[in-house]
Amino acid sequence: MIIVFKPNATEQDIDHVxxxxxxxxLKTQISRGEERTIIGVIGDERILENQPLSVFPGVESVTPIxxxxxxxxxxxxxxxxxxxxxxxLVGGRRLTVMAGPCAVEKLExxxxxxxxxxxxxxxxxRGGAYKPRTxxxxxxxxxxxxxxxxxxxxxxxxxxxxxxxxDPRDTDLFLEKADIIQIGARNMQNFELLKEVGAYDKxxxxxxxxxxxxxxxxxxxxxxxxxxxRNIILCERGIRTFETQYRNTLDLSAVPVLKELSHLxxxxxxxxxxxxxxxxxxxAKAAIAAGADxxxxxxxxxxxxxxxxxxxxxxxxxFKDLMAELQKIAQAVGREL
Length: 337
Hints:
The protein is of the alpha/beta class.
């Protein structure tokens, strides 16, 4: 349920309603737009059946949210959420390109890639320090050492960093070292992990699960927002279908659908979606044309020797060319890069 206040409602009016809801054992989330303030009510709404909230001073309307996701919905917040990641705005007019190696390897390699990403116009450095792999014998990442390499790359380039967390016990480590905490596709419905990162204000990049529906995806985001963290970035990264010519099927129709249903920023990962470097650029362009707020792209200086997903990584030169091509598409759809 959402409670919409009149434009002239005072802070006292809003506090009065909020206090009453908390007395009833309900949780609240406040969204302040340019014209209206809205309170999202979380809990058993049957408690409100005999509560005349519409007559409270400053209240304009009381409306139930019909979608199963409440706080991530456009009904709760009409305006797009824009997330400040250490000075980089995600979800605004300017597109955000997060790029870097799938897995952090050696320090010198990480530093070199970070400098190439920065020079090409990338805005955030991505890199996996902890890697969830299908096979237990595959490279699992450098762990804490990998995060330290990313931090050194940030120190030298100024690029904020995004890296994937696997274990709730590592939350403090990621709060200290990462600018964005990534929840990977395999953990999209790891509800304890979602609740853990939801307890903090640190930006979260939530990837769509391999076989997740839009509904399941948004409800996973709801887990995070329901704990108080509004800094959520949704990431479409392809879903598993019957097609075997490429790794996954990139569901670009999810981009406008998510933008219609939710106020959260949406980015696309064409690297993991296709699994082939030669498909990354065309799908990246298509994603921006479809309305995505940004991209997550794998870049490696020596893909043939990469310890993880080299076959889908762009060499720095190709990444630079892609960034130049994206400029034209961004301009065509009213965005900036």
